[in-house]
């Protein structure tokens, strides 16, 4: 028997959306997904929820603008693409959210700013103020500066872990991670047709990581490994995370009504 989900009680919610949910394979906007996302998150704010959106997509949108079909290998080119794509992404969000009278804001962060007390306090004060005003902060990694000295390949461009860092720092009740897949499977479903969806995970161990592989697309970055790391952070903070299919973001309404959707990560 799984846990009672009890997600209707979640008040402060972080929603993370990956590149693969926001853009088509050719790098152009998935307008249906963005429209649904704007509508859904605005509706939740109207219900009294506090919503933070962690949105990837800057590099993918930048690639679409320059008509590139392959993600460049070099970090400076990826950073330049992110700089191009981020403003375009925000322009589209601004337009779509304004249809619902919803105010949004841009918050660009690096993973480490929450490690230092001074910058952490500034970031948390900003989030608290925006949320108290009913504004949705739209967070992305500050890709121009986000190159960790030692291991930029895994640290650069990882909004999965950033979303969990933000969710735990602002004491969110729930992280909803939307991806291009229905949830966490016992093996990579892009490779194995008999892979099975796991509906609930209470503990993450070596075996869980063994089932997680990299991204299936040209645009996604972390694949399942970084999503599991995010889930591990949420569990350690005794918070919940749901991993679900983001092709139709209004799925969040069903998730908050405790429908049996996606994979729930929660401590027993
Ligand atoms: N065990 C697994 N369960 C589900 N998906 C997996 C698994 N292992 C690897 N994957 C891959 O991870 C992909 C999702 O990660 P990613 O492409 O980075 O998405 P996003 O852009 O949403 O961050 C899936 O489409 C799938 O190809
Ligand atoms: N910050 C970068 C990428 C971040 C990232 O984690 O991408 P994804 O795996 O699609 O969630 C961007 O906006 O393109």
Summarize the structure.
The chain contains 10 helices and 10 strands.
Question: What does the model show?
Answer:
With 268 residues, the chain is α/β, with parallel strands linked by helices. It has a single domain (12-265), classed as Carbamate kinase (3-Layer(aba) Sandwich), CATH 3.40.1160.10. 41% of the residues lie in helices and 17% in strands. The protein is built from ten helices and ten strands. The protein has helices spanning 19-22, 31-46, 58-65, 75-98, 117-132, 152-155, 159-169, 206-211, 223-236, 251-256, and strands spanning 12-17, 50-55, 104-109, 136-141, 174-179, 184-185, 197-198, 200-201, 240-245, 263-265. The strands form two sheets. The chain has an eight-stranded mixed β-sheet with strand order 3-4-2-1-5-9-10-8, sandwiched between helices. Helix 5 (117-132) links the parallel strand 3 and strand 4. Helix 2 packs across helix 4. The longest helix is centred in the N-terminal third of the chain and has 24 residues, at 75-98. The protein is globular and about 45 Å long. Residues 149-154 have low confidence and may be disordered. Ligand VHF is lined by residues 18-19, 56-60, 82, 140-141, 143, 157-160, 220-222.
């Amino acid at each position: 028997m799984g846990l009672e989900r009890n997600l209707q009680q979640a008040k402060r919610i972080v929603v993370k959306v990956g590149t693969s949910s926001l853009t088509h394979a050719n790098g152009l906007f998935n307008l249906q997904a963005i429209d649904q996302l704007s509508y859904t998150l605005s509706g939740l704010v109207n219900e009294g929820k506090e919503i933070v959106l962690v949105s990837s997509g800057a590099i993918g949108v930048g690639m679409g603008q320059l008509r590139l079909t392959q993600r460049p290998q070099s970090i400076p080119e990826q950073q330049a693409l992110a700089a191009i794509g981020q403003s375009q992404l925000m322009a589209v969000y601004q337009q779509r959210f304004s249809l619902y009278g919803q105010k949004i804001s841009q918050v660009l962060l690096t993973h480490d700013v929450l490690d230092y007390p001074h910058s952490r306090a500034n970031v948390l004060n900003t989030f608290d103020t925006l949320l108290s005003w009913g504004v949705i902060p739209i967070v992305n990694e500050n890709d121009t500066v986000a190159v960790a000295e030692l291991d930029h390949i895994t640290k650069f461009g990882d909004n999965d872990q950033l979303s969990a860092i933000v969710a735990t720092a602002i004491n969110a009740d729930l992280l909803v991670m939307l991806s291009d897949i229905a949830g966490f499977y016992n093996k990579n479903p892009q490779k194995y047709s008999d892979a099975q969806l796991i509906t609930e995970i209470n503990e993450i161990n070596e075996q869980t990581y063994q089932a997680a592989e990299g991204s299936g697309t040209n645009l996604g970055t972390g694949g399942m490994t970084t999503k599991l790391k995010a889930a591990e952070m949420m569990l350690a903070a005794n918070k919940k995370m749901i991993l679900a299919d983001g092709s139709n973001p209004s799925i969040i309404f069903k998730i908050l009504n405790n429908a049996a959707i996606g994979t729930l990560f929660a401590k027993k």
